[in-house]
Amino acid sequence: MKNLWFHLMPYKDLPDDFRDEHPSVWVDIDAGLLDAKRVHEHYNDYLDELEFAAEAGFDGICCNEHHQNGYGLMPSPNLIAATLTRRTASPAICVMGNSLALYNPPTRVAEEFAMLDCMSGGRLIAGFPVGTPMDTIFAYGQNPSKLRDRYYEAHDIVMRAWQEPETFSFNGRFNQLRYVNVWPRPVQEPHPPVWIPGGGSVETWRWCAEKDYVYSYLSYFGYKAGAATMQGFWDEMDRLGKDRNPYRAGFLQFVAVGETEQEALELYREPAEYFYGRCLHVNPKWASPAGYQSEATIRAKVQSQVAQAAQASRGPAGAAREWQDILDLGYVIAGDPDQVAERIREVCVNLNVGHLMLLCQFGNMGTDLAKYNTRLYAEKVLPQIRDLFDDQWQDRWWPQPLAERAAPRDLALAAGG
Amino acid sequence: MLREVELTVGGRPVRLWDKGEGVAPPAVFFAGIGGLPRWIPFLDRLAEQRRVLVPALPGFPGAPDFRHLDSLLDWIVQIVETLEALDERPVDLIGSSVGGALAAEAAAIAGPLVNRLVLIAPFGVYDADDPAADIWAQVPGPDSIPNLVCADPETWKQAWTLPEGAAAIDWQVMQSRAMEASARLLFPFGDTGVVSRLHRIDHPTLLVRGEADRVLPASYNARFADALAGEVRTASIPDAGHLPELDAPDELARQINAFLADQELK
Fold it and tell me: What is the ipTM, given to two decimal places?
């Protein structure tokens, strides 16, 4: 199986009374709370942590895109990924991802992802989320009734731009481009692996199956809430006659590793409560603008237990905020290395997930603790679970880097490792 | 007697309600946000004195297809062709809210199809110094839209009461589809740019507003009044919100009947 280290890049100084005094962490978060000098320090720490995770042996490092968001300081994940191409040697760089409908023209995504793939020597995983309503509808002003059609059209442009051998024209509903011919093109052929972060929508599952993309369920509510969604995904794969290759799927999980269980419970309480208490304080008025959900999804949500569970797991309104509840509900897997390894193995087997994305830094966790968590996971958990699935399944959705890769001048990092 | 027929506009089905008779031109009603899931008492009051025609707007109950409409021009063509599909014209055109935005466009672009114009809290303009409510950023729940668009939310709920034998999920999808259609046309500000076309509307026009409208400020009707080329009268309806046709059917119909019957207007 693959272990990927995922950073959200939260702002760490949201005040204690944030829930009571501020309406939302997202969209209209109070700009007065932001200290750019702190953000400077955050970026330095967070990039250090991503690089540390790469050196510690994680298979991949991930960043993502959020806008006007107090728990996600990455409006442009491509900038973060660009620095990682220079400061890491071997892990996959997973940009999870670029919200396709927000880029005008969408060839911008084809260009920047191609640049990242070339810069990294073919280490890019290309994530294509639709994007949350907060990011797409309210922060970026997209029409909720046209978002999905724009997304699909943008996807078609990017995939053609990477693969068509000659200049072509694209006369679409939303994009008119007379000459499409992106330079550079990706190193990976025919294109970097495509992963789709999604919620629990049947249409997304079907689309991933049809296109042979990875479906990645990025919930903050852990393996218990996520089980129903993953079950729904695999049931749909069965119906479509697809194999149960666990590498078709990705899943996000918070982890908190200590030398002992007691230590883990003590060390990670504060950052977990910070994340679930403050970072997920989103005004519900941003949650469901008319048209964001398709009619099929609305019907499925009413009619299907699976989707109801998915919705409950995504909606932070009723989510737990106290440490014991956070643990009991499985939002965070905490314990000593053996306990965590055993639970992770169980989760990956039960949910049949080959790409596990791990949040080792969360909330206001300091950089030393984030690295401690990362190191313990890499040294003592990872070796216990790394071989899972590999006797049975091949990962067809993993980057294929160049065997010989150039290295930055002053780092002397070994290529090919 | 209420007759229901299906028009075909642009190859797509459009429900048409038809009731009443009279010598005057028929009155056509374009519904407000959410559309009309059923015939409402306001339309009965209007139909006491004239023929009333109610074609469903794209995406509203009675006309499920709307996702082919991308640009404002697509919407205008759809609306003009709906009016052209009626068996009598010109018509006295009454539009409320979302329907008001489309009625104004029809009058501006296809003036000869329209005799007199009634605009009830029409969308179409936006003023950052006097902002409209953000109808797309509402806390989910059964009360949020009724509380926003009606002075008395019960009037909305009455109009949307599940008919016997209907599936609740179909009803819910119909409502969310109607809200999506409004977003497709008007997101994010409700500003269609109609101000630049209002000088083309030389029809006698009645501009109406519910005094308790929580969606659009009073200044928006004034923007219309300032820019319209024809004679303009104004009316405000007490105890009514954004959709006076639900909140105050009798008073709204009385004002409209008086306006349409006024022989002094040219």
Answer: 0.96
